[in-house]
Amino acid sequence: MDQDDHVCLCFHVSLRKLRAFIKRESPKVPSQISECLGAGTGCQWCVPFLEKLHRQAEAGEEMDLAVSPESYAKRRAAYKQRKESDQPSADDSR
User: Fold this and answer.
1) pLDDT at 25 exceeding the cut of 80
2) C-alpha distances in Å from residue 37, one per residue of 8, 29, 67, 92
3) Total structural domains in the chain?
4) Domain interval for residue 16
5) Residue 40 within a domain
6) How many Cβ atoms sit within 10 Å of the Cβ of residue 93?
7) 93 inside domain
8) Is residue 1 one of the residues assigned to a domain?
9) Tell me, what's the pLDDT at 94?
């Protein structure tokens, strides 16, 4: 994934912004990364990726996600479709 590719697709938060935020703020727990433009608070698809970036930073490793933007977006679309199909419809409340 390139620096300017979005990790959080809901709020358009790029890998570059996340890296800078993590370096600057040193979040103690991964959930604090949500303070970076709301990352991870939309559909929550990116949460495992945010957790990975946090682990990498804690270990002193380069923060990187080895996935192509196309594959990432395709997997997220499948995730959202599964999540939406799990939602009860108004007819299910009877």
Assistant:
1) yes
2) 9, 16, 22, 35
3) 1
4) 6-80
5) yes
6) 6
7) no
8) no
9) 47
